[in-house]
């Protein structure tokens, strides 16, 4: 009697699982058909071909913003008010000096729906560090039709600071990007 119950249970389990497998096949077939009907998608361009690579000092337009990366430098320490912060062993600070012009109708910080990062050797990304430094633009509100000069600070490995490979700053607003070649 137990053998018959176990056998019946086993057969029901197999029947249910094969029915589910056939449903999965039908579902995936439908998904393939839908994706085949959307042939209007274009291949994603590589970052180098996606946008022009600007030079330091070049004025760039990005939505309601005008951005000018004026200069950059690698430093070991940063002064915050009356204190000095030293980079960790094996790291340096990258200070990117920028001017931002808000051509919008409201006072906004640049990072409202946007961001800035540095890309080293086409694959390593570093986001800016926010600080209480005088001149840090991370959360600085820029009035409409006004320009603010300041900086963004990044913590990078010393290897990046001393390397000859390409270093690019990428500014992004609502998925639109502009890039500046630092070196």
TrEMBL record:
Protein name: Uncharacterized protein
Biased composition (Polar residues): 25-43
UniProt-listed InterPro entries: Immunoprotect_excell_Ig-like (IPR029050)
Originating species: Paenibacillus ferrarius
Alphabetical UniProt keywords: Signal
Region (Disordered), start-end ranges: 25-50
PROSITE patterns xrefs: PROKAR_LIPOPROTEIN
Signal peptide bounds: 1-20
């Amino acid at each position: 009697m137990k053998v018959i119950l176990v056998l019946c249970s086993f057969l029901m389990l197999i029947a249910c699982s094969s029915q589910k497998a056939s449903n999965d096949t039908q579902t995936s077939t439908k998904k393939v058909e839908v994706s085949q009907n959307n042939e209007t998608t274009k291949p994603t361009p590589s970052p180098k071909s996606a946008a022009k690579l600007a030079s330091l000092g070049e004025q760039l337009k990005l939505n309601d913003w005008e951005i000018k990366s004026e200069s950059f430098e690698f430093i070991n320490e940063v002064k915050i008010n009356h204190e000095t912060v030293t980079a960790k062993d094996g790291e340096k600070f990258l200070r990117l000096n920028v001017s931002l012009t808000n051509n919008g109708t409201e006072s906004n910080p640049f990072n409202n729906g946007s961001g800035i990062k540095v890309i080293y050797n086409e694959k390593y990304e570093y986001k800016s560090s926010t600080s209480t430094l005088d001149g840090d633009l991370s959360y600085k509100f820029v009035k409409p039709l006004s320009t603010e000069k300041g900086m963004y600070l990044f913590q990078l490995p010393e290897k990046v600071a001393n390397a000859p490979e390409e270093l690019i700053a990428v500014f992004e607003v609502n998925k639109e990007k502009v890039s500046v070649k630092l070196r």
